[in-house]
Amino acid sequence: MTTPSIIGADVEIEGHVKTAGEVQLDGSIIGDLTCSSLVMGETGSISGMISAETATIRGQVSGDIRAKTVRLEKSARVEGDVYHASLTVEAGAKLTGTYTNLDNPLSQTGALPAPSRDTETPAPDFLKAPTAAE
Questions:
Q1: pTM for the structure as a whole
Q2: DSSP E strands: which ranges in the chain?
Q3: DSSP string covering 8-23
Q4: Distance CA 67, CA 91 (A)
Q5: Labelling 134: which of 9, 57, 66, 124 has CA 20 to 30 A away?
Q6: pLDDT value at position 108?
Q7: CA 78, CA 104: separation in Å to the nearest integer?
Q8: What is the band of 116 on the pLDDT scale with cuts at 50, 70, 90?
């Protein structure tokens, strides 16, 4: 087992990041990230595509996510499409884009047609955060 690569909250990286190991992201990446496992903290952000076996998102993503297992926690803000084999979304997480279930989302990179953005599908009620009136 390798030690995770930690990108602290005060670090900003411009360019693509690739590692065979785990990344713990509290800073920001402007570019694509490829890793085996991503754990993004609430202060973490990525403007680019994420490709990983597992991705736990607590911060902000502007770009697509391709991972076998994706977990969007309540503080997650994602603007992009999510391609996954398994998806978990906590109440309060925000996803602006589409989500597509695939047997192996990592092997199908580039093989998918662009998703239609003509219609917006609202999130199911059980995924929506309660309002102050409730």
A1: 0.79
A2: 5-7, 12-14, 17-18, 22-25, 28-30, 33-34, 37-40, 45-47, 50-57, 60-62, 65-72, 77-79, 82-89, 94-96, 99-101
A3: -TT-EEES-EE-SSEE
A4: 20
A5: 57
A6: 61
A7: 21
A8: very low
Q: How far apart are CA 53 and CA 34, in angstroms?
A: 9
Calpha distance 110→118 (Å, rounded): 21
Cα→Cα distances 35→22, 101, 125, Å: 6, 20, 33
Query: Is residue 35 a contact partner of residue 22, using CB atoms and an 8 Å limit?
Result: yes
CA atoms within 13 A on the CB side of 15: 4
